Amino acid sequence: MKRVGIPHGLFYFYYYPLWKSFFEDLGWEVVTSSPSSRRTIELGIDTAVDEACFPIKVYMGHIRELCRCRLDYLFVPRLVSIEERSYICPKFMGIPDMVRALVDDTPPLIDIVVDMSRNQKHFQREMNELGQKLGVKRRDWQRAYQRGLQELGFCRALTREGHTMAEAIQIWEGQPAPSLPFADLNIGLLGHGYALYDTAISMDMINRLRRLGSRVILPESLERHLVEAQAATVPKRVFWTLGRSMLGSALHLDQRVDVDGIIYVACFACGPDSIIGEIIERKIKNKPFMFLTIDEHTGEAGLLTRLEAFCDMLRRRRNSNCDSNLSSYG
Amino acid sequence: MIATFPHMGNMHIPLKALFKGLKLHAIEPPPVSKRTLDLGVKYSPEFACLPLKINVGNFIEAMEKGADTIVMGGGWGPCRFGYFAQVEREILKDLGFKFTMVVLEAPDSRLTDLLRQIKALGENVSIGEAYSALKFAWYKLKAVEVLEKSLESCLPRAFNKALVEKYYEQGLQSIDQAENRKALAAVTLEANRAIHAVNCSDEPVLKIGLVGEIYTILEPSTNCHITRHMGRINAEVTRSIYLSDWVNDHLLGGWVKKSNHHHILESSRPYLNYAVGGHGRETVGCSVDFARRGYDGIIQIGPLTCMPEIVAQSVLGRVSRELQIPCMTMYFDEHSGNAGVYTRLEAFVDMLARRKRLNVQTPYARQCPGQTVEAGV
Fold first, then answer.
1. Nearest neighbour of A282 by CB, restricted to B90, B312, B315
2. Looking at this predicted complex, what is its ipTM?
3. How many C-beta neighbours within 10 Å does residue A139 have?
4. Backbone dihedral region of A194: left (phi > 0), alpha (psi from -120 to 50 degrees) or beta?
């Protein structure tokens, strides 16, 4: 039985169910690196170039960890585009090359190019080539891929119920669903999934907010068509998939009566965040808004203080029962 | 209507000619200064890249001079340049400026699209006039680059470096003022002769390839005048990007002049096998090309947090190891400590000189294509 490693970072949080069930249906064993820890972070910082963003560094840590696992293959897809006329980020487009250049002795990489920016044909061709290289029959991988999509759909349905994608993956793998504590606030939390859902990167921000008595609304839990409709209101279509989803979510949340405040979590040195964050900051007029930047610093107390202060402010604003006294931004 | 545009090196010279040919009143923003940078940094997003900040500074200063129409480039990603114009419009609008913004979109499109967009800018010109305006701008651009290349090759060799720089500046001014093709050719020839007439030494100089992001390479105020400084310390810098090449490859479909773009992209294999937006792939390809041409070292420059350059930087380490060529990466942001940059450059040059003196070979070991391709699947 062949062993394939899947790093526990970046688009793991969006696509793991698909990848895992795909490889398992082909009869392979899937090895995942352990969730990010201080050790992963240190390995990653050691490996990646200084200027790379934090999630990329952590991803390199996961790669280093998997390199020691005696694998036949390492799954490092080149995610160019997952929908028409949109991109993810230049760094994702160069990930396999960065891994080859920065990490010695990697197992052979499965560096399939996922480019759906024009149409699905390119992706189909890539999959055909991959199938040939791996010696898998076309019918087999197509069936495995279809089933993978179903599993992914199952997990995405769970996110509609207020779970994060990381929790959905855990539930999908058979662990009990975590109970959500009582909440009196509704906070929209925006950010790249690979930063938000990785508890080491975001310093467990989602659970911290929950413990502070707030329900967290994530972009994945919103209706797609509402988000897209709001994202279409800006003069130029945003060409980053995640950026557009965040802009649309922010504008949508801005108009919802039940939302008390919005937090945007950006990774330091993230290109799309620097642009989209700025536009969101300027467009949100009705809700209190906080822009948080995270990197590899370890000062959790500072983050916690800001979250607490934000929640306190939201409660005070609501209890004072007037909209005009406190400026909602700035 | 008074149009303005962002600065990028000497781009204002051909652009002014273009606007004049389109019978548009255009003013150039004041040269990039400390104030430009301060204004840009004050009003731009904190960790946006440097070009955006300087653009904002340029626009504010140009509008203070009376401009009311901004002409800006665009694109469709994945590099964030494609969204610059949108953010800049929001920022300037919130600052209370009244203006219209014209975005020339889709730089990878057909020439006809570009012509149409340029024609739309010029109100009362025919397609023919628009075409000849474009052509004259192209010749000005070529003339500017003739001088830039002369400066790069003569400065490191000349005894009297100040004289070379003086002739270069004067040459640019007369190119800027040239009214027609004939005058342009004459002043270019004259300036070029003057630069080449300065006494030069016969000592071999260090050859360094300058690769990286287009704006940082073309706009000297963002890179602490790296080419000139290297020239002053007797190192010859060859840039990987000239504006005419870029225009030729991306706007004119490569049919105006011979292009080595394809060769550069091929050179980037097996190090970087996919376009990563911006000039990431060109950076790697040019580095490999410089190494094969026997250059002594490579300097990569880019604005801090530039995404394509970070990918290229990650890969350059491997290029440096396998082709045995020293590479240094420098990122620029709004810091103004030129001395620190110069110290690093001088140290790099000293190191290369020593390496050369000790006769450490920089043999580009000729590899069969495919030999270094790591086992993918």
1. B90
2. 0.91
3. 9
4. alpha
